[in-house]
Design goal:
Elements: H1 7-25, H2 29-36, H3 40-47, H4 55-64, H5 70-83, H6 98-106, E1 109-114, H7 125-135, H8 141-154, H9 156-159, E2 166-172, H10 173-177, H11 183-196, E3 202-207, E4 221-225, E5 234-237, E6 244-246, H12 249-265, H13 269-284
Parallel strand pairs: 1-2, 2-3
Antiparallel strand pairs: 1-4, 4-5, 5-6
Helix pairs in contact: 1-5, 2-3, 4-5, 7-8, 11-13
InterPro entries: Cro/C1-type_HTH (IPR001387), DUF5753 (IPR043917), Lambda_DNA-bd_dom_sf (IPR010982)
Protein name: Helix-turn-helix domain-containing protein
Organism: Streptomyces viridiviolaceus
Length: about 280
């Protein structure tokens, strides 16, 4: 298999197939765990793609599910092997949100709402440096630089000429007004957002203060969608010590409806770009 296989997405697909086989067999995760003398949480983690899957795991599960077609077993075993490859982000060491990076790397589109900061894919290096340093004051200079490098590398998904990520961003006006890194950094950052928003695959809207209460009042979230129909959409909610990934259809639908309301309440694209440019000029004074 080619080295550019995305291990995160491969684990998700494999987990989904293993869940399908279990359900076809009419077994619960608890029953499978009991048969294999493992914890139920291990079976759950294997099925949701949050845990690396070994070929031995696949062999044992196929045995429990009585999969007789060797071609299916071989295919699943190959997926398990592929899923243990390392993505480009592993070269940077232990990245807390590596699962998200894997999903973002393979996503076809991303819709995100940011209530406080400029979204990572649109951040300039000076802004990212100041933001990470302020958010993680006890982090070493070396770790800050590593995180910044990862953030800049992620931006290749929207700057590449081949199949760029379709990005739709709703920014709260607070993200424009919160001074991160100083006025010069903010001016350059907002000018960058305004410039990037003119690309055909990037849409930026601003939710102004005078909207008042709105569906995104509880905080940031993102919705990732994939080209392969086998990959379900994912809602990603970033946390301080752990992140939340929602994949059930009714959860994704709820957040999708919330996002539609945010887009409807936000300024349109031209009005948003004008506000971003106006605030950038304020920082230049």
């Amino acid at each position: 298999m080619a080295s550019n296989v995305n291990p995160t997405v491969r684990r998700r697909r494999l987990g989904q197939e293993l869940r399908r086989l279990r359900e076809l067999k009419g077994m619960t995760a608890e029953e499978v765990a009991e048969r294999l003398l493992v914890s139920q949480s291990k079976i759950s983690r294997l099925e949701n793609g949050r845990r690396s899957i070994s070929q031995r795991d696949v062999r044992d599960l196929c045995g429990v599910y009585e999969v007789e077609d060797q071609r299916i077993v071989d295919s699943l075993m190959q997926m398990a092997k592929d899923s243990r490859q390392q993505g480009w982000w592993h070269a940077f060491g232990d990245i807390p949100y590596s699962v998200y990076i894997g999903l973002e790397t393979d996503a076809e589109s991303l819709r995100t709402y940011e209530p406080q900061i400029i979204t990572g894919l649109l951040q300039t290096r000076p802004y990212a440096e100041a933001l990470i340093q302020g958010a993680l004051p006890e982090t070493s200079v070396a770790d800050i630089e590593k995180r910044v490098q990862v953030r800049i590398r992620r931006q290749e998904r929207i700057s590449g000429d081949s199949n760029p990520l379709r990005l739709w961003v709703v920014l709260d006006e607070a993200a424009l007004r919160r001074v991160v890194g100083g006025r010069q950094v903010m001016r350059e950052q907002l000018e960058h957002v305004a410039e990037m928003s003119q690309l055909p695959h990037i849409t930026v809207q601003v939710l102004p203060f005078d909207v008042g209460a709105h569906p995104g009042i509880n905080g940031q979230y993102s919705i990732l969608e994939f080209a392969d129909a086998a990959d379900s959409s994912v809602v990603y909610i970033e946390g301080v010590t752990s992140d939340l990934y929602l994949e059930k259809a009714h959860d994704v639908q709820k957040y999708t409806v919330m996002y539609e309301h945010l887009r409807a309440q936000a300024l349109n694209v031209e009005q948003s770009r004008q506000l971003i440019e106006d605030v950038a000029k304020e920082y230049a004074r």
